[in-house]
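Checklist before submission:
- one chain only
- standard amino acids only
- sequence pasted in full

Submission:
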Amino acid sequence: MAAIDPPTRAAPLPTATPAGAALPLARLLYAGELAPDQLVETLKHTQRLFPVSDVRRGPDVRALPDSPRRLGPVRLRQAGRTYDLVDYLALNRVAGLLVLKDGAIVLEDYELGLAPADRWASFSVAKSVCSTLVGAAITDGFIASVLEPLTRYLPELGGTAYDGVSVRHLLQMASGVRWDETYTDPGSDRRRFLDLQIAGRPGSLLRFMGTLARAAPPGLVFNYSTGETFLVGALLEAATRQPLATYLSARIWAPAGMESDATWWLEAPAGTGIGGSGLAATLRDYGRFALFVLDDAVVGGRRVVPAGWFLESVTPQIHDGVQVDYGYQWWPMPPGDPIHRGAFAAQGIFGQRIYLNPRERLAIVVLSARPKPTGAHVIEDVAFFGAVAEALA
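Returned file contents:
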């Protein structure tokens, strides 16, 4: 599990499968019905499921040096049992693990056939990337503020349940619009969204979001919704007049020194980017994104997002006196273990994680192939992150 030298060039972007050839695979994926090896191959090649746009790297690559520090024994207790690092890798079906302390690699490990040049699906980790792009769009003057009404940028949603919803409500998933995120239920809103994505008709996803009903006034209820982050992506494309992948390349991927091109799903060829999912990148480039955030999005002395943006983004919501551990598409660590004070994470189904602890200058990236979209872990990720942080504190 020693650090591995970076590839000299990115792996070539594979050619997408002809339209329709892998459509049943997408449904099996979200239903949690793929065999282990088939799941790994799917997560390594998600560009075969849907059309993609390339997120281009820039000319300069941010070095990730080896740290002089090594990670000592990692031990954690859960439900009366003691687990270690090897248990976490094996039991949680980890394909890639990267631990960065003070900007340097403490641990880098590849399993399940993943190689350093391979891209891997991020799923909802892309939501946190979208949130960061909203901050960039505010800095660039494309979006006035998070208090602006969504319909200013997406007038197509006028007269729908999204009337009166602000950009901030959308980022917090507190629009009040009804949504069922259940991945394994073919009748859920999430699976209806997937079926429209499979059909690949331009504009169909935005029209679908406009048919949803209101369940509560905006700002009163948190309800996790991939559809909401699709709207964040559509908002970004409308405001910047650029594809999501192009804006990500210009504001983050190239300036932050990514080593490889990434890919991002599209609704249809040349269609809207799928803001809530579909970004695929290498383990090290996810690590570079984590460092970009730990650096408060300041690159070469230039600020990409407004000052205080990440603090605002990871502030939990309060509804009727009850705290919800969700910010602007980021998950603040719940109160409890003091090692996590100020820490937050990006999370995706099947076990994709980016853990950020600014106080400890620690970033942990986990890429996994757990058998079901949610609830398939053996060891709690937060407990593992805390054990790593303690071992390096």
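Reviewer check: The two ends are 21 Å apart (CA to CA).
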